[in-house]
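can u pls check wat happens w/ zinc ion
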Amino acid sequence: MRDYPCNLCGSDDLSEIVCAPTYMAGRPLHVCNACGMVQVAHRKTPEEVKAAWADEMYRADQKTRLSDTTYTARMPAVHARQTFAADFIDEAVSFRGKSVCDLGAGEGDFLALVQGPDYGAAEAFAVEPSTANCRLLDERGIPNFVGIAEEFIEQAGDRANSFDLVTIIWTLENCHKASDVMDAAWRLCKPGGHVAVATGSRILVPFKKPLQYYIGPNADVHPFHFSARTLEGYMAQAGFRKTDVNRFIDSDYLVMVGEKTDRTAPISWQGDNATAVLGFFERWDKETRGFYMEDGPNP
Ligand SMILES: [Zn+2]
C-alpha cells in the first residue's frame, strides 16, 4: 500500500471525505483540494491489485458464467447500460464503418453489440487483462490483446494511431491510473479520432441511490470517481477535446466523447470545487442514513 498524489492534476493536497470509511470497510476516500477529483489515494500497487484480480477474477468467471458457449445470458442491467452507451456514442460519432478498440473489453459484449447490424462498426479489437475473458473473445472471433491498455500501447506497433474510436466502458474507474489509460487511448486513436468514456460515477449530481450502493469495500479496484467536469479534465490532460456528453443529471450514466487533438495546445478544463464535493458527500451520507438505514424512515 502507498499514498498516491492526485491522478488528475498531480497535487499532494488532498482532503479526506469524512463519511467514506463507514461505507468502505474503514478505507479512506479523498478529494483533491486543487481540482476536486475524488479518488482512493491510499491503495495497493498495480502488482498487488493484479495478483488479487487474477485469482479472484478467475474464480468469479467460473461462478457467474452459465456455460462456455452461452453468451446471450447477460445481466439485464449490464445489457441496458451498454446499449445506452452504444446509442449515445453512435449518435455522437456513429460506429458505422469505423474501427473500434475497446479497453477493458470483458467478454466482448459491447464490441459484439457495436459490430452488429444496428451500429455497423467495421472492425473490433479488444484489450482485456483476464485470460479467461480473452479465451471467450477468441471463441467469438474478436481479435484481442491479453493485458491492460498501458501494456498494449508498449507493443501496439502499427495499431498505434490506427483506430477511429477507442471506447472505455465502465473501466476507467477501475484501473490503477486513469491518466495512463487515457494516454493509451490517445496513442491508439488515429489523428482526429475519438475516445468515448462511459461510467457510473455520480459526483455532484442528485443522489439516485443510497451511498452504500455507490462506494464499498472494493477501494483498490475502484479508485476513481468522476464528475462531468473531472472526466472532461482527464480528456483534456490526455489531449482530447470534449465534443459530446449525455444528459447525466438525471441518468445513472455519464457518457462523454472527445476528439483527439495533436497536443500542441493545452486544453483548458475546470475541475470541481473540493469544498462543494465534501458538502455533497456529507449530504449524501445524511440522506442515506435518513432514508435507507434501519433507524430512518422507509424509502
Ligand atoms: Zn487534483
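Residues 60-73 have pLDDT under 50 and may be disordered.
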